[in-house]
Specification:
The chain has 338 residues and is of the alpha/beta class. The protein has one domain (8-336): NAD(P)-binding Rossmann-like Domain (Rossmann fold). The chain has helices spanning 21-32, 44-56, 71-85, 108-133, 157-180, 198-201, 219-232, 241-252, 254-262, 266-269, 306-312, 315-336; strands spanning 12-16, 36-41, 60-65, 90-93, 99-100, 139-144, 184-191, 203-204, 208-210, 236-239, 272-276. The chain has a 7-stranded parallel beta sheet, sandwiched between helices. It has a two-stranded parallel sheet with strand order 5-8. The longest helix has 26 residues, at 108-133. It is globular, with a radius of gyration of 19 Å.
Length: 338
Protein backbone atom coordinates (compact mmCIF):
# COMPACT_ATOMS: atom_id res chain seq x y z
CA UNK A 1 0.00 0.00 0.00
CA UNK A 2 1.25 3.47 -0.87
CA UNK A 3 0.11 6.87 0.38
CA UNK A 4 -3.57 7.28 -0.49
CA UNK A 5 -4.74 10.51 1.12
CA UNK A 6 -8.19 11.88 1.40
CA UNK A 7 -8.74 15.13 -0.52
CA UNK A 8 -7.69 18.18 1.50
CA UNK A 9 -11.34 19.15 1.79
CA UNK A 10 -11.97 15.96 3.77
CA UNK A 11 -8.84 15.92 5.93
CA UNK A 12 -8.51 16.53 9.67
CA UNK A 13 -5.15 18.23 10.19
CA UNK A 14 -3.30 18.99 13.43
CA UNK A 15 -0.87 21.92 13.29
CA UNK A 16 1.51 22.79 16.12
CA UNK A 17 2.98 26.27 16.45
CA UNK A 18 -0.25 27.53 14.92
CA UNK A 19 -0.44 30.88 16.71
CA UNK A 20 2.04 32.67 14.45
CA UNK A 21 3.84 32.56 11.12
CA UNK A 22 3.99 29.40 9.04
CA UNK A 23 1.68 27.43 11.32
CA UNK A 24 -1.02 30.10 11.30
CA UNK A 25 -0.74 30.66 7.54
CA UNK A 26 -0.99 26.91 6.95
CA UNK A 27 -4.08 26.61 9.14
CA UNK A 28 -5.82 29.42 7.26
CA UNK A 29 -4.86 28.03 3.85
CA UNK A 30 -5.98 24.48 4.64
CA UNK A 31 -9.23 25.73 6.17
CA UNK A 32 -9.99 27.67 2.98
CA UNK A 33 -9.50 24.40 1.11
CA UNK A 34 -12.06 22.73 3.38
CA UNK A 35 -9.87 20.89 5.88
CA UNK A 36 -10.86 20.64 9.55
CA UNK A 37 -8.11 22.18 11.69
CA UNK A 38 -6.84 21.41 15.18
CA UNK A 39 -4.54 24.31 16.03
CA UNK A 40 -2.09 23.97 18.91
CA UNK A 41 0.22 26.53 20.53
CA UNK A 42 0.89 28.22 23.87
CA UNK A 43 -0.64 31.61 23.01
CA UNK A 44 -4.35 31.22 23.81
CA UNK A 45 -5.29 34.68 22.53
CA UNK A 46 -3.70 34.03 19.14
CA UNK A 47 -5.39 30.63 18.91
CA UNK A 48 -8.77 32.21 19.68
CA UNK A 49 -8.39 34.78 16.89
CA UNK A 50 -7.27 32.05 14.47
CA UNK A 51 -10.20 29.76 15.23
CA UNK A 52 -12.63 32.67 15.04
CA UNK A 53 -11.31 33.69 11.62
CA UNK A 54 -11.66 30.16 10.29
CA UNK A 55 -15.17 29.73 11.65
CA UNK A 56 -16.32 33.11 10.31
CA UNK A 57 -15.30 31.89 6.87
CA UNK A 58 -17.37 28.75 7.27
CA UNK A 59 -14.54 26.40 8.24
CA UNK A 60 -14.16 24.01 11.16
CA UNK A 61 -11.44 24.48 13.75
CA UNK A 62 -10.58 23.64 17.33
CA UNK A 63 -7.74 25.01 19.44
CA UNK A 64 -5.61 23.32 22.07
CA UNK A 65 -3.32 25.31 24.34
CA UNK A 66 -0.26 23.09 24.67
CA UNK A 67 3.51 23.14 25.06
CA UNK A 68 4.94 20.53 22.68
CA UNK A 69 7.97 20.11 24.94
CA UNK A 70 5.76 17.94 27.19
CA UNK A 71 4.76 14.53 25.79
CA UNK A 72 1.52 14.49 27.77
CA UNK A 73 0.51 17.81 26.22
CA UNK A 74 1.11 16.45 22.72
CA UNK A 75 -1.02 13.41 23.49
CA UNK A 76 -3.77 15.77 24.68
CA UNK A 77 -3.70 17.49 21.27
CA UNK A 78 -4.29 14.17 19.54
CA UNK A 79 -7.01 13.17 22.00
CA UNK A 80 -8.85 16.44 21.36
CA UNK A 81 -8.62 15.95 17.59
CA UNK A 82 -10.06 12.42 17.84
CA UNK A 83 -12.77 13.55 20.25
CA UNK A 84 -13.87 16.43 18.02
CA UNK A 85 -13.38 15.02 14.50
CA UNK A 86 -13.01 11.26 14.95
CA UNK A 87 -9.59 10.83 13.31
CA UNK A 88 -6.32 12.50 12.29
CA UNK A 89 -5.35 12.56 8.59
CA UNK A 90 -2.44 14.98 8.73
CA UNK A 91 -0.10 16.20 11.44
CA UNK A 92 2.16 19.21 10.86
CA UNK A 93 5.02 19.57 13.37
CA UNK A 94 5.90 23.23 13.16
CA UNK A 95 6.44 24.71 16.65
CA UNK A 96 9.87 26.31 17.12
CA UNK A 97 11.80 28.79 19.25
CA UNK A 98 15.25 30.30 18.79
CA UNK A 99 18.06 32.06 20.63
CA UNK A 100 20.49 34.31 18.76
CA UNK A 101 23.86 34.11 20.50
CA UNK A 102 27.30 32.62 20.26
CA UNK A 103 27.70 29.21 21.90
CA UNK A 104 29.64 30.65 24.85
CA UNK A 105 26.79 33.05 25.51
CA UNK A 106 24.11 30.36 25.87
CA UNK A 107 22.96 29.08 29.24
CA UNK A 108 22.25 25.40 29.86
CA UNK A 109 18.55 26.22 30.38
CA UNK A 110 18.36 28.00 27.03
CA UNK A 111 20.04 25.12 25.22
CA UNK A 112 17.72 22.56 26.80
CA UNK A 113 14.61 24.59 26.03
CA UNK A 114 15.38 24.99 22.32
CA UNK A 115 16.05 21.27 22.03
CA UNK A 116 12.90 20.38 23.94
CA UNK A 117 10.59 22.51 21.80
CA UNK A 118 12.16 22.18 18.36
CA UNK A 119 13.44 18.61 18.34
CA UNK A 120 11.63 16.70 21.08
CA UNK A 121 8.39 18.48 20.18
CA UNK A 122 8.58 17.09 16.64
CA UNK A 123 9.62 13.64 17.83
CA UNK A 124 6.70 13.57 20.27
CA UNK A 125 4.27 14.83 17.63
CA UNK A 126 5.42 12.26 15.08
CA UNK A 127 5.18 9.41 17.58
CA UNK A 128 1.69 10.40 18.69
CA UNK A 129 0.50 10.98 15.11
CA UNK A 130 1.87 7.68 13.81
CA UNK A 131 0.12 5.78 16.60
CA UNK A 132 -3.25 7.39 15.83
CA UNK A 133 -2.86 6.98 12.05
CA UNK A 134 -1.94 3.31 12.15
CA UNK A 135 -5.54 2.42 12.98
CA UNK A 136 -6.61 3.50 9.48
CA UNK A 137 -3.24 2.74 7.88
CA UNK A 138 -2.97 6.09 6.17
CA UNK A 139 -2.09 9.70 6.85
CA UNK A 140 0.72 12.21 6.47
CA UNK A 141 3.24 13.46 9.02
CA UNK A 142 4.84 16.72 7.87
CA UNK A 143 7.89 17.94 9.77
CA UNK A 144 9.03 21.51 9.26
CA UNK A 145 12.81 21.60 9.18
CA UNK A 146 14.84 24.28 7.43
CA UNK A 147 17.48 24.78 4.79
CA UNK A 148 19.58 24.93 7.97
CA UNK A 149 18.79 21.23 8.41
CA UNK A 150 21.67 20.70 5.97
CA UNK A 151 23.89 23.75 6.44
CA UNK A 152 24.74 25.69 9.61
CA UNK A 153 25.05 29.43 10.07
CA UNK A 154 26.62 31.29 13.01
CA UNK A 155 24.61 32.67 15.96
CA UNK A 156 21.97 29.91 15.77
CA UNK A 157 23.97 26.86 16.83
CA UNK A 158 21.30 25.09 18.89
CA UNK A 159 18.49 25.97 16.48
CA UNK A 160 20.61 24.54 13.66
CA UNK A 161 21.34 21.43 15.73
CA UNK A 162 17.63 20.81 16.24
CA UNK A 163 16.90 21.28 12.55
CA UNK A 164 19.63 18.79 11.67
CA UNK A 165 18.11 16.44 14.22
CA UNK A 166 14.66 16.81 12.71
CA UNK A 167 16.02 15.79 9.31
CA UNK A 168 17.67 12.68 10.71
CA UNK A 169 14.65 11.68 12.78
CA UNK A 170 12.29 12.20 9.84
CA UNK A 171 14.38 9.96 7.63
CA UNK A 172 14.52 7.20 10.24
CA UNK A 173 10.77 7.38 10.89
CA UNK A 174 10.07 7.24 7.15
CA UNK A 175 12.10 4.04 6.84
CA UNK A 176 10.32 2.40 9.77
CA UNK A 177 6.85 3.27 8.48
CA UNK A 178 7.74 2.08 4.98
CA UNK A 179 7.96 -1.38 6.55
CA UNK A 180 5.08 -1.27 9.03
CA UNK A 181 2.63 1.34 7.66
CA UNK A 182 3.48 2.30 4.05
CA UNK A 183 0.21 4.21 3.73
CA UNK A 184 1.57 6.88 6.09
CA UNK A 185 3.70 9.50 4.34
CA UNK A 186 6.53 11.23 6.20
CA UNK A 187 7.62 14.50 4.56
CA UNK A 188 10.32 16.99 5.51
CA UNK A 189 9.78 20.65 4.58
CA UNK A 190 12.99 22.70 4.22
CA UNK A 191 12.14 26.42 4.09
CA UNK A 192 14.52 29.20 3.16
CA UNK A 193 14.35 32.43 5.20
CA UNK A 194 10.70 33.27 5.84
CA UNK A 195 9.05 36.53 6.90
CA UNK A 196 7.44 35.34 10.15
CA UNK A 197 7.11 36.76 13.69
CA UNK A 198 9.70 34.22 14.92
CA UNK A 199 12.31 36.99 14.76
CA UNK A 200 10.16 39.29 16.90
CA UNK A 201 9.93 36.66 19.63
CA UNK A 202 13.35 34.99 19.40
CA UNK A 203 15.64 35.62 22.35
CA UNK A 204 18.54 37.80 21.23
CA UNK A 205 21.88 38.30 22.95
CA UNK A 206 23.23 40.38 20.10
CA UNK A 207 22.22 43.74 21.54
CA UNK A 208 19.94 44.21 18.53
CA UNK A 209 16.89 42.49 17.09
CA UNK A 210 17.66 39.54 14.80
CA UNK A 211 16.53 39.18 11.22
CA UNK A 212 16.28 36.43 8.59
CA UNK A 213 19.18 36.02 6.18
CA UNK A 214 18.04 37.52 2.84
CA UNK A 215 16.43 36.84 0.48
CA UNK A 216 13.16 36.30 2.34
CA UNK A 217 9.97 34.53 1.27
CA UNK A 218 6.44 34.99 2.56
CA UNK A 219 4.86 32.28 4.80
CA UNK A 220 2.29 31.48 2.12
CA UNK A 221 5.04 29.82 0.05
CA UNK A 222 5.70 27.32 2.85
CA UNK A 223 2.00 26.79 3.56
CA UNK A 224 1.38 25.83 -0.06
CA UNK A 225 4.20 23.28 0.09
CA UNK A 226 2.75 21.78 3.28
CA UNK A 227 -0.65 21.53 1.62
CA UNK A 228 0.99 19.74 -1.31
CA UNK A 229 2.70 17.30 1.05
CA UNK A 230 -0.59 16.50 2.80
CA UNK A 231 -2.27 15.86 -0.53
CA UNK A 232 0.50 14.06 -2.40
CA UNK A 233 3.03 12.80 0.15
CA UNK A 234 6.66 12.90 -0.92
CA UNK A 235 10.03 12.95 0.78
CA UNK A 236 11.81 16.34 1.08
CA UNK A 237 10.51 19.67 -0.23
CA UNK A 238 12.86 22.66 -0.31
CA UNK A 239 10.94 25.92 -0.18
CA UNK A 240 12.72 28.73 -2.00
CA UNK A 241 15.43 28.60 -4.62
CA UNK A 242 17.95 30.36 -2.38
CA UNK A 243 17.60 27.60 0.20
CA UNK A 244 18.30 25.06 -2.52
CA UNK A 245 21.44 26.96 -3.57
CA UNK A 246 22.62 26.93 0.06
CA UNK A 247 22.12 23.16 0.26
CA UNK A 248 23.85 22.59 -3.07
CA UNK A 249 26.74 24.80 -1.98
CA UNK A 250 27.15 22.70 1.15
CA UNK A 251 27.19 19.47 -0.84
CA UNK A 252 29.57 20.75 -3.50
CA UNK A 253 32.15 22.48 -1.32
CA UNK A 254 31.47 23.07 2.36
CA UNK A 255 34.90 24.70 2.75
CA UNK A 256 34.16 27.31 0.07
CA UNK A 257 30.82 28.00 1.75
CA UNK A 258 32.61 28.41 5.10
CA UNK A 259 34.88 31.05 3.58
CA UNK A 260 31.94 32.85 2.00
CA UNK A 261 30.03 32.98 5.30
CA UNK A 262 32.87 34.22 7.52
CA UNK A 263 34.35 36.67 4.98
CA UNK A 264 33.78 40.10 6.47
CA UNK A 265 31.54 38.43 9.08
CA UNK A 266 29.01 38.24 6.25
CA UNK A 267 26.50 35.79 7.75
CA UNK A 268 26.74 37.29 11.21
CA UNK A 269 26.00 40.80 9.94
CA UNK A 270 23.14 39.57 7.75
CA UNK A 271 21.33 38.38 10.87
CA UNK A 272 21.47 41.71 12.72
CA UNK A 273 19.02 44.58 12.38
CA UNK A 274 19.86 48.11 13.41
CA UNK A 275 17.09 48.13 16.02
CA UNK A 276 17.78 47.77 19.76
CA UNK A 277 16.82 44.43 21.23
CA UNK A 278 13.26 44.00 22.47
CA UNK A 279 13.51 42.09 25.78
CA UNK A 280 10.33 40.08 25.16
CA UNK A 281 10.69 36.55 23.82
CA UNK A 282 8.74 33.29 23.73
CA UNK A 283 11.47 30.92 24.86
CA UNK A 284 9.93 30.03 28.21
CA UNK A 285 6.72 32.06 28.03
CA UNK A 286 4.13 32.14 25.21
CA UNK A 287 4.22 34.81 22.55
CA UNK A 288 1.84 37.68 23.18
CA UNK A 289 -0.90 39.34 21.18
CA UNK A 290 -3.58 38.14 18.77
CA UNK A 291 -1.18 36.40 16.40
CA UNK A 292 0.07 37.17 12.90
CA UNK A 293 1.16 35.23 9.85
CA UNK A 294 3.79 37.73 8.73
CA UNK A 295 6.74 39.39 10.39
CA UNK A 296 8.38 42.78 9.85
CA UNK A 297 10.49 41.86 6.85
CA UNK A 298 7.86 41.99 4.12
CA UNK A 299 9.60 44.69 2.09
CA UNK A 300 11.03 42.81 -0.84
CA UNK A 301 9.86 39.43 0.49
CA UNK A 302 9.04 37.01 -2.30
CA UNK A 303 5.34 36.01 -2.46
CA UNK A 304 6.11 32.96 -4.62
CA UNK A 305 9.00 30.60 -5.27
CA UNK A 306 9.19 29.71 -8.94
CA UNK A 307 11.82 27.11 -8.10
CA UNK A 308 9.63 25.30 -5.56
CA UNK A 309 6.45 25.53 -7.63
CA UNK A 310 8.04 24.40 -10.88
CA UNK A 311 10.70 21.95 -9.66
CA UNK A 312 10.37 20.77 -6.05
CA UNK A 313 6.74 19.85 -6.60
CA UNK A 314 7.67 18.08 -9.85
CA UNK A 315 10.38 15.50 -9.00
CA UNK A 316 11.16 14.55 -12.60
CA UNK A 317 11.90 18.14 -13.56
CA UNK A 318 13.94 18.64 -10.41
CA UNK A 319 16.21 15.69 -11.13
CA UNK A 320 16.74 16.86 -14.71
CA UNK A 321 17.96 20.30 -13.63
CA UNK A 322 19.82 19.41 -10.44
CA UNK A 323 23.17 19.14 -12.22
CA UNK A 324 22.79 22.55 -13.84
CA UNK A 325 21.92 24.17 -10.52
CA UNK A 326 24.82 22.42 -8.80
CA UNK A 327 27.30 23.74 -11.33
CA UNK A 328 25.88 27.25 -11.05
CA UNK A 329 26.17 27.16 -7.24
CA UNK A 330 29.78 26.00 -7.46
CA UNK A 331 30.73 28.80 -9.86
CA UNK A 332 29.00 31.39 -7.65
CA UNK A 333 30.77 30.18 -4.51
CA UNK A 334 34.16 30.28 -6.15
CA UNK A 335 33.53 33.81 -7.34
CA UNK A 336 32.40 35.28 -4.00
CA UNK A 337 34.94 33.39 -1.88
CA UNK A 338 37.97 34.71 -3.77
Amino acid sequence: MTYQPRPISEQVVVITGASQGIGRETALLLARKGASIVAAARNDMALDTLVSEIRRSGGQAESVVADVAAFEAVEAIADRAIERFGRIDGWVNNAAVSVYARVDGLSADEIERVVQVNLLGQIYGSKVAAKRMQASGRGAIVNVGSALSERAVPLQSVYVATKHGIAGFTEALRLELMETAPGIAVVLILPSSINTPLFDFARSKLGVMPMPVPPVYEPRVVAESIAYALEHGGRDIVVGGWGKLLILGQRLSSSLLDRYMVQGRRLEMQQRTGRPDDPRDNLFEPSTGPGSTRGEFGKGAKPVSVYTHELELHPMRKRALTLVAALAAFVLLRKVAT
